[in-house]
Amino acid sequence: MKKLPLFLLALALPAATLTPVAGAAAQDRAGRAFSRADLNGDGVIDPNEVTQLRAKMFDRLDKNGDGVVTQEEIESAKRGFRARLTGSSKTSFERADANGDGKVTREEFLNAPRPIFERADTNHDGKLTPQEFESFAEQVREQARQRR
Ligand SMILES: [Ca+2]
Ligand SMILES: [Ca+2]
Ligand SMILES: [Ca+2]
């Protein structure tokens, strides 16, 4: 399986799944992740772009292409991605699965809450600037360090 880009997972999964990396390497990676997510290249990430990224991610996770991502498909994606999920973390798939039947449709997933986006958008203008993105990534790394 092709490795999922870190940023796609970072948007969809809890912050805990971001692998902590120190210093310049981390900044560099955040910068590249940012430009990959800025699909129209206007220098900010907007919710529309998040939705498009989710759509791409959904298609990758939906291995059998039936338009529904099951718990099983999520588990296999998690195994393919080396990030560890802590016991209490829920993926946004699990959050999106409102009726708890272990399946998430494309529509549910695209319309699921965007807690990471909203936390990172510190001035709440609905757009993520590279500065907001980087300072959020820094917070996440800091939290990851403190958990050890
Ligand atoms: Ca943009
Ligand atoms: Ca499926
Ligand atoms: Ca903002």
The largest sheet, given as strand count, sense and whether it forms a barrel, is: 2 strands, antiparallel
Mean pLDDT: 79
Rg from C-alpha positions? 15 Å
Global shape: globular
Number of strands: 2
Discrete helix count: 8
What distance separates the N and C termini? 30 Å
> Helix/strand-derived class?
mainly alpha
Strand arrangement, major sheet:
1-2
Query: What proportion of the residues form beta strands (DSSP E)?
Result: under 5%
Order of helices and strands: HHHEHHEHHH
Fold and architecture overview:
- This protein is mainly alpha-helical and 148 residues long.
- It has a domain at 21-61.
- Helices cover 55% and strands 4% of the residues.
- It has helices spanning 6-12, 23-37, 47-61, 71-80, 92-96, 106-110, 115-120, 130-147; strands spanning 68-70, 103-105.
- Strands 1-2 form a two-stranded antiparallel ribbon.
- The model is unreliable at 13-18 and 84-89 (pLDDT under 50).
- One calcium ion (CA) binds at residues 62, 64, 66, 68-70, 73.
